[in-house]
Design a protein that fits this description.
Elements: H1 2-21, H2 26-53, H3 59-93
Helix pairs in contact: 1-2, 2-3
Length: about 100
Amino acid sequence: MAAGLRRESEACRAAFARYQRGAITPVQWRTARADSYAREARWWGVLVRVAARDHSIPTIYISAVATAQGAALTEDAHWADSAGSYTRTTAATAPARLA
């Protein structure tokens, strides 16, 4: 679990570094962020399911993990929406081509 979250964090940093170098577009960067948060949410979901089966784990811990999963899902939706908005905005402001 920790290794998976660490890999996601590293992937996020790598995508940002590529974006800063100009190797990926703003839309690709936003999409990578959304994908990263979606994967993070799935990892938190795994932990929620495992923790819920173990009746020795306090409910507050399970609640905290579920909150982390919800936050990752919210961020996923935000970045996916941002990528879509950026795409629509750039398409709307692009100069018209004459035939």
